[in-house]
C-alpha cells in the first residue's frame, strides 16, 4: 500500500511537470525580460535589481509561490552584460531553491542593429516534503530508499535581435540540458525531469512626445514544452518614464492580468500585478493571484570617455597632429614672450584649449537625420560605440546646451555627442571652457576638414 501511494504521488509530480510549465509565470517580464532570456542582460544602460514575490493558487493547501532576486547590467565593455539571480519556488510537495550566474555578449550587425547571445548556469536544490506523503507504514523499504533532497545543475541560453528604433525579437531555451533528478537509487519512477522549454517574444517600443518619455509597447510571447499545449501571451504596456506604467496581458486558456507600477526619482520602481482566472481552469479555481515587485536602478556614469586620440588608427595622422600641436606650443611661447608677463593660470588655460583641437580629414561624419555633416569646428563631449550611451549624455547636457546633437563617424562607427558647431574655432573654444566646468574634462574640439 505504501509503495502504491508513494508511486502515485511521485508519478503525478513527474508526469504533471513534464507536461506543464516548470518555468513559472512572471507578470513583470515587460519590465525585466532578462528573467526569461539571458540575452537581455545589460540591455539598458544601467544596473537593475528586482525583488519579486508571486503568489498563486491560494485556494489550495499551501498554493504556489515564487520569490526572485535578480541583478543585471553592463560590464566594463558595452558589449558585455552580466546577470545574477536567486530564487525560490514552492508548489505542493515540491520546493526548489536556486542560484544563477550568466553572461551576455552583443555584436553590432549594422548601424542600429545588434545581436546578443546570453547563457546562464544555475545550481538547483530540489526538495520533496516526504512528511506530507500519506503512507501506512513509515518503515516500508520503498520509503527508506527515497531521498528528499537532491542537488542538480541547469543551463539556460538565449538570443536577442535588437533594432534601435524599438524592435526586439528574442528566443530562449531554459533548462536546455533537460537533465533528470533522481530521488531514489533503486526506484526508476522516483525522479523529476527538468523539461526543456522554448520561449520566444516579439516587442516594439513606440515612443511619443518630444522627449520620447511616453512609450507604448506591444509584446507577444510563445511558450512551448514537448508534450504540452503551446501557451501564448499578448501584452500591451503604456509607460510614462516620469511617473510609471500600466499594462494588460492575456494568457491563453489561463488568465488575464493587469499591472500597475510607479517610478520614483528615476531610481525606485514599485509594481503590483493582479490575475483574473479565465478559461478551463476557472471552473476548478477562482482565488486571486498576486505579484509584487520592488526594483532599484543604479545609474551608469557616462562622463568617462576614452581619450580622443585612441580613435585615430592612422599612425601618420597622429604624428601630424603632434607636430601641429608642437608648433602651436612654440607660437604661444613666442607670443607670451612678446606680451610681457601675463598671468600664469590664463596662459596655461589658453594653451590647454589650443591643444584640445583635433584635426581630421579622412573621417566621414553624417547627420542622424540624413546628409553629410559640414566642415568646421565641433565641441565633442564624448564618442560611443552604442547610440544609447550617446543619447544618455545628450540628455544630461540638454539643459545647458539645448542645440546639442549626435553625428555618426562612418570610418570608426562611433556616435559623437556634439554640443556646439561653428565654422570658426573661437566660439567653440569659448564653449569648451563651460563644458569642462560642467563636469566633462575630457571634452575636445574636433576640426573637421573635407
Helix content: 10-25%
Largest sheet properties: 14 strands, antiparallel, barrel
Helix/strand-derived category reads: alpha+beta
Average pLDDT confidence is 80
Query: How many individual domains?
Result: 2
- Number of separate strands: 23
**N-to-C series of helices and strands:** HEEEEEHEEEEEEEEEEEEHHEEEHEEHE
Strand content: 35-45%
Radius of gyration: 29 Å
What general form does the structure show? elongated
Kindly provide the name of the CATH class of the largest domain. Mainly Beta
For the record, what is the CATH homologous superfamily label of the largest domain?
A: monomeric porin ompg
The low-confidence parts are 1-19, 302-313, 335-348
CATH topology of the largest domain: Porin
Amino acid at each position: 500500500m505504501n509503495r502504491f501511494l508513494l508511486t502515485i504521488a511521485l508519478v503525478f509530480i513527474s508526469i504533471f511537470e513534464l507536461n506543464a510549465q516548470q518555468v513559472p509565470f512572471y507578470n513583470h517580464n515587460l519590465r525585466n525580460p532578462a528573467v526569461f532570456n539571458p540575452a537581455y542582460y545589460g540591455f539598458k544602460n544601467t544596473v537593475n535589481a528586482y525583488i519579486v514575490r508571486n503568489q498563486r493558487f491560494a485556494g489550495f493547501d499551501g498554493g504556489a509561490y515564487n520569490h526572485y532576486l535578480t541583478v543585471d547590467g553592463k560590464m566594463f565593455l558595452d558589449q558585455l552584460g552580466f546577470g545574477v539571480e536567486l530564487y525560490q519556488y514552492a508548489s505542493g510537495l515540491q520546493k526548489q531553491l536556486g542560484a544563477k550566474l550568466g553572461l551576455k555578449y552583443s555584436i553590432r550587425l549594422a548601424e542600429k542593429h545588434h545581436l546578443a547571445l546570453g547563457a546562464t548556469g544555475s545550481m538547483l536544490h530540489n526538495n520533496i516534503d516526504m512528511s506530507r506523503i500519506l503512507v501506512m507504514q513509515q518503515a516500508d523499504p520503498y520509503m527508506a530508499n527515497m531521498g528528499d533532497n537532491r542537488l542538480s545543475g541547469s543551463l539556460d541560453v538565449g538570443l536577442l535581435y535588437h533594432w534601435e528604433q524599438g524592435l526586439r525579437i528574442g528566443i530562449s531555451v531554459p533548462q536546455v540540458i533537460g537533465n533528470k533528478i533522481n530521488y531514489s537509487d533503486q526506484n526508476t519512477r522516483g525522479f523529476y525531469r527538468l523539461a526543456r522549454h522554448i520561449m520566444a517574444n516579439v516587442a516594439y517600443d513606440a515612443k511619443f512626445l518630444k522627449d520620447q518619455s511616453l512609450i507604448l509597447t506591444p509584446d507577444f510571447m510563445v511558450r512551448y514544452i514537448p508534450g504540452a499545449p503551446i501557451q501564448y501571451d499578448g501584452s500591451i504596456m503604456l509607460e510614462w518614464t516620469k511617473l510609471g506604467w500600466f499594462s494588460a496581458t492575456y494568457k491563453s486558456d489561463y488568465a488575464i492580468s493587469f499591472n500597475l507600477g510607479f517610478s520614483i526619482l528615476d531610481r525606485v520602481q514599485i509594481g503590483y500585478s493582479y490575475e483574473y482566472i479565465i478559461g478551463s481552469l476557472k471552473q476548478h479555481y477562482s482565488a486571486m493571484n498576486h505579484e509584487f515587485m520592488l526594483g532599484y536602478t543604479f545609474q551608469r556614469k557616462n562622463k568617462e570617455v576614452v581619450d580622443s586620440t585612441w580613435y585615430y588608427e592612422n599612425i601618420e595622422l597622429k604624428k601630424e597632429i603632434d607636430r601641429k600641436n608642437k608648433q602651436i606650443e612654440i607660437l604661444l611661447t613666442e607670443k607670451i614672450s612678446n606680451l610681457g608677463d601675463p598671468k600664469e593660470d590664463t596662459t596655461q588655460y589658453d594653451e590647454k584649449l589650443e591643444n584640445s583641437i583635433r584635426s581630421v580629414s579622412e573621417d566621414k561624419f553624417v547627420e542622424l537625420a540624413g546628409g553629410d555633416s559640414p566642415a568646421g569646428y565641433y565641441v565633442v563631449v564624448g564618442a560611443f560605440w552604442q547610440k544609447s550611451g550617446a543619447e544618455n549624455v545628450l540628455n544630461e547636457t540638454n539643459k545647458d546646451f539645448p542645440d546639442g546633437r549626435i553625428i555618426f563617424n562612418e570610418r570608426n562607427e562611433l556616435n559623437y555627442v556634439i554640443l556646439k558647431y561653428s565654422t570658426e574655432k573661437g566660439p567653440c573654444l569659448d564653449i569648451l571652457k563651460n563644458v569642462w566646468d560642467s563636469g566633462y574634462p575630457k571634452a575636445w574640439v574636433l576640426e573637421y576638414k573635407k
